[in-house]
UniProtKB/TrEMBL annotation:
The keyword Protein biosynthesis applies. Pfam families: Formyl_trans_C (PF02911), Formyl_trans_N (PF00551). The keyword Transferase applies. This is Methionyl-tRNA formyltransferase. Its EC number is 2.1.2.9. Residues 201-297 form the Formyl transferase C-terminal domain. Attaches a formyl group to the free amino group of methionyl-tRNA(fMet). The formyl group appears to play a dual role in the initiator identity of N-formylmethionyl-tRNA by promoting its recognition by IF2 and preventing the misappropriation of this tRNA by the elongation apparatus. GO terms for molecular function: methionyl-tRNA formyltransferase activity. HAMAP family: Formyl_trans. It comes from Paenarthrobacter aromaticivorans.
Amino acid sequence: MRVLFAGTPAVAVPSLDALVKAGFDVVAVLTRPDAPLGRKRVLTPSPVAARAEELGIEVIRAAKVDADTTARIAEIAPDVAAIVAYGGIVPRAALGVPRHGWVNLHFSLLPAWRGAAPVQRSIIAGDDVTGAATFQLEEGLDTGPVFGTLTETVRPDDTAGDLLERLSLSGAVLLSQTLSAVDAGQAAPQPQTGEVSLAPKLSLEDGRLDWQQPALALNRRARGVTPEPGAWTTLEGQRIKLEPVGLRPDVKDIAPGAIRVDGKSVLVGTGSHAVELGRIQPAGKKMMSPADWARGLAAPEKVVFQ
């Protein structure tokens, strides 16, 4: 079966590898254009593009699936298109090009967390279990009938990066199995049922920690926005980036946003009990341990995060 693979970030690479390993004829890869990275803003291929080039697969770079891109897909004549975090909308004209349509691997148990940031939103919401689903792509936002699902436990210390890494590997197997069923004529997608929730793309503001909130909510938010866009707070008008914070239910006498140095630990008050800072990155400096950061403070007892 001739497969067009559409994907952009690193979490899509295991799926591309799985399809190649399973013997599918991956005739081309559709991915976002090269993007400037690093301080020197060097144009860099997407992780999927880089892997496709290593595999000797044709790469179609497109910021959106426009008329020209659709025409190129039609020339390639795939039997099916597999899509994993491509980062763009597939319009109606392109949906009908492959004879088996487009099969999307989405990192949630649909219809929960439809949208661009399902894993991140799941952690922020405090879900105990999440997963992945393959479904038939249609014009609605992640609304198509589901081929198959898998579940994954959300661990207490999981960041979005941790959970996405695990789901990218298990999801790659699910996608390969789904395409095998499609190829054999044995796929039977079922309409989505259950409560719908949305997972819009995270903004920088989503990473801001509100110290008036309970400690558990702050812990979940910090984990959900790691590695991107990252958790942060402000001190004297300067933004400070934070790694995930730990829970300290034994400490309840610190005002929200105020800090307390306890040996090598730095505690911060919240709307419930304290949290313990992980590594911290002040504006213009490198990431450092909380103890090193606290040693640079003239009067730690007067520090209050905003």
